[in-house]
């Protein structure tokens, strides 16, 4: 496998913003995977941390969503991994790190069988994928969707030690993420409420709050924000996306991921497809507000990106706005204030639009591809526009690019996939001044009370991976074809978690497509510092699926930080669930103190 030599990692660290920071106030030992807010930590000495791969489980299936969300049971020394499409949880013994290397699961928990046995489902065929797992105290909670996914799903509770069934609670449609509040009194669930294909059925997105004292459920919906409802005017429509087909606001909003404040009072829920964050009062069971995230201007120096998969490394400014659309979110404290950290993946409704008629498609503001007979939002000039039909112009009406209808050739905007619906809406028609593309190819930090962005990693992810891999950067996660994802969300930041090491707070960000982990010292949210990029993937392997044992880890989906206190080896760990390779990887985190 291709690994980054230590000397190169150190050189990159020095060139690309320094190793570590002066470490104002870090987070004191909270579990970032579950999105739990932490208290202020002490100032740390100048230091360097570095991830070192030490183990990886055997593959549980190539491109089968077989290793997604991962958590760690410190008491029983187990790693639990959601094996999504199988509807199971894989349990690995981890008395020592060597126990995990090339290991198969010691136990598999069949959630459908468990629900049927408990009388919560009448047959296994009505139970769908397992999507998320969290552990706290004497409870493990697992989010399980129904079959079909538009029906209400469940949160299944099992005992961490015996792995025996305790209870199951019905929640909203497509429960996608589950987490405990820090005080252990509640479980919070993001119910995405995705539509089925063709929008035959589109359930409302919601947030379920489960009170663990009696397993009672409060469902928080967004109906008060519908047109004509009392809170509709509160929506920051200029900073978010509301594009569900023939949908109310409540149907259009799709909760994805949850982080809970340190005092267990507030949940912050990403609404990924909507480019927004919902703030939930957990005691009252109400929506406090919805924060629109706005758009990232890729024409500004520092925000460059590569927009074509046919031009090698060509990272530069373009008239493109990135729609942040974060997937994972976590949070921490700095000087008594809460900050949110997001992985800005981007997502579209493309999978659900197929089947709409031309009139329905165009009437909703999407593009109907007549040759293919499908409704689309993921749009590129290469695929759909004749050169005479559109012109990309500036505010004075002059073409930004003089050839191919203003989009340029294969080394310009002709190939970039962007949101047709959002671009038309924001430009007021099809004479586009700027394109609106999915995701921001970055991670961001936001002030929780106001939604103000205090940091974005800009072009770091593409720039750093291009420095290491050259034209092999921006790979897809299921094939080695360099530059392949440049036209479509680039490296695609998927997951983020936080960990505190010696008084410094570190953010670990997984790049779903290119693979690997970015590490930043975020002790001061206003001045994060790049620390390391590590990727256990060999981009020279031709046949990824056949030579899976050689190519390494593919498609990181879930992250979990393990403190030194809880680690079998006495050093902090980062666990990574790799969805495409079906492997769970373990990184040990080394700490080096620097002389002052």
TrEMBL record:
The transmembrane segments are none
User: What PROSITE patterns has UniProt attached to this entry?
Assistant: PROKAR_LIPOPROTEIN
Read off the InterPro entries from this record: Choice_anch_I (IPR055188), Mesenchyme-surface_protein (IPR052956), Quino_amine_DH_bsu (IPR011044), WD40/YVTN_repeat-like_dom_sf (IPR015943)
Q: Matching Pfam families, A to Z?
A: choice_anch_I
Q: Does the keyword Signal apply?
A: yes
What the entry lists under Gene3D superfamilies is as follows:
YVTN repeat-like/Quinoprotein amine dehydrogenase
* Keywords, ordered alphabetically: Signal
Cleavable signal peptide: 1-22
Residues annotated as domain Choice-of-anchor I: 65-350, 401-589
The reply to whether Signal figures as a keyword in the UniProt entry is yes
UniProt protein name:
Choice-of-anchor I domain-containing protein
Recorded source organism is Desulfuromonas thiophila
